[in-house]
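Summarise this fold before class:
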Amino acid sequence: MARNLPPLNWVRAFEAAARHESFLKAGGELGVSAGAVSQQVKSLERRLGVALFVRLARGVRLTEAGATYRDDLSPALARIAEASQRIGAAPNTARLRIAALPALAEKWLTPRLSQFQEAHPETAVELSVAKDVRQLAETSFDLAIHYENQDVPGFGAVPLFRDEMHPVCSPAFAAGAPIRRPQDLLQCRLLYDIQWTEDWSAWFAAAGLPADSGNRDSGFALYSMAVEAAVEGLGVVMGHAALVAREMDAGRLVAPLGLSVPVPHGYAAMVPLEPGARRAVGPFVDWLKDQCPTP
């Protein structure tokens, strides 16, 4: 008889949230956003046909059914972990070498990699950053995650997602310099990644202001630096939604204005076209697509 098992990711999300009685803390443990934990728990609740949590204004609380389910699941997950540890890693470990845009590697992919490694312990992942992948065929990388519409000989593009962007800043900065309309940003220090100089221009144009508006005199070589500067209250950065989700979920950044516009470049996985490519490439790309934000 087939076993009617829910997806393990849903179960793990519930078990972590039940232990912490917090979607935010569970997301921190699992390397995903609180929103992702919430969605996985909702999917599990729909599958089971029962509410596992009571959603409160500040946090969540287990229902009686949720507490019972937690007590039954925790030992089962512990046994799975123990059995997996006894078996050990597969003797023929595959190695997958990935190159990615610096911001995408640090802010989006790295926090999620533990999920792939847990699902595919036989694959060892090596992640590096690459601002240019046009010479990908001449390197030792197996695939790259970069802008779409790249012309890379020997590689094809698998579309991943096109992000949205909007200005974000720290709560303290927002309180000290009220930002209620796009024009208010003209009085603020605007932070930017020196590789993504078109971000602010695109947003100002969508807001009906001249594209060259604003005081953009704080540039950073890495997007993560610009984000951290915004967290520390230096100014306002253009927040790529997928890349600042963790800071937004944790309340370290806020979006004072509601206007979001598409990021100028979509993202894609550049995968080898040759039949003899590493077997681990396919499963990794399938996993990547599952991680992409829903349009």
